[in-house]
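Hi V.,

Quick status before I head out on leave. The structure for the redesign project is tokenized and pasted below; the design run finished overnight.
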């Protein structure tokens, strides 16, 4: 029984997030960031052309990235590491689709505050315990691996009163992944309508937000927002389990966008690139010291 000495050696591996940031989060890619926008029009032409989802555009000579379309493929960061960089972190979910476009186009702090207050009022009854109905409406399967990981010993969402249910009648939160294939839209709508009030909807992953690599076509609806009202948008392709967890806690009012560091980055990773953040955390043992 090798798991006994292994368990004794490794101790408790379960994250303490959100009570305490314990260092797992910054090992994930959160988002692409523009680090130098000077002369963007000429310097990033190749990146704009190489971006497979059209997530990079130029406005008034400055690059703009739609994180709701970015599949984190890394082409732009490889071509132009002097302009684009991956931010480590996970608190990337937003309450409004427009807020995923950075720099922001129309959103103001006041709009986001009102959206947050309205959602908080609606979900007040769900703060202590919530049941999730997950529905796959045309995912490539990667999102499902991350959703399934939420119940493993590292994330252990049950410790936060978050449970999965097979029945929409018992569900408070609809977690949708996938591009919104035409054949699944009725099932999505019916699942939403079968859920009791109050209910919340999360679009998990860029496929559910915008259609991702497939976008909109004869079989893909380009996301789920035209079928059901979305309350929280979690970017990523796929989003990491911590990104999903943050989105869930945001959806039920246990966290707010004000609780996070700018750009969804963990405070421990501020000012670091992804490689540095990762090597720091591995050398520090993920902040698990003293937990055995
Ligand atoms: S990481 Fe890929 S999808 Fe995202 S902006 Fe860069 S090129 Fe586009």
């Amino acid at each position: 029984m090798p798991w006994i000495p292994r368990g004794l050696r490794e101790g408790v591996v379960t994250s303490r997030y959100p009570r305490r940031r314990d260092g797992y989060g910054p090992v994930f890619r959160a988002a692409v960031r523009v680090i130098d926008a000077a002369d963007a029009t000429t310097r990033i032409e190749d990146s704009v052309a190489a971006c497979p989802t059209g997530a990079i555009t130029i406005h008034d000579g400055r690059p703009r990235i739609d994180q709701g379309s970015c599949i984190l493929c890394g082409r732009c960061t490889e071509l132009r590491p002097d302009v684009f960089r991956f931010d480590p972190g996970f608190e990337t979910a937003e309450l409004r689709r427009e807020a995923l476009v950075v720099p922001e186009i129309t959103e103001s702090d006041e709009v986001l505050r009102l959206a947050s207050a309205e959602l908080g009022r609606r979900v007040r009854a769900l703060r202590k315990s919530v049941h999730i109905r997950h529905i796959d409406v045309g995912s490539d399967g990667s999102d499902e691996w991350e959703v399934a990981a939420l119940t493993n010993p590292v994330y252990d969402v049950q410790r936060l009163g978050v449970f999965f249910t097979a029945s929409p009648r018992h569900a408070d939160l609809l977690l949708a992944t996938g591009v919104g294939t035409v054949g699944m839209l009725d099932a999505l709508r019916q699942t939403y309508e079968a859920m009791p009030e109050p209910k919340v909807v999360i679009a998990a992953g860029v496929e559910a937000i915008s259609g991702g690599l497939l976008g909109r076509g004869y079989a893909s609806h380009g996301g789920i927002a035209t079928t059901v009202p979305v309350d929280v948008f979690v970017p990523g392709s796929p989003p990491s389990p911590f990104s999903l967890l943050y989105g869930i806690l945001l959806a039920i009012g246990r966290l707010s966008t004000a609780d996070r560091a700018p750009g969804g980055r963990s405070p421990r990773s501020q000012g670091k690139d992804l490689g540095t953040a990762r090597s720091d955390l591995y050398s520090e043992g993920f902040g698990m010291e003293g937990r055995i």
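Above is the designed sequence. Strands lie at 29-34, 56-59, 62-66, 84-88, 101-102, 130-136, 162-164, 173-177, 200-204, 232-234.

G. will cover questions while I'm gone.

Best,
W.
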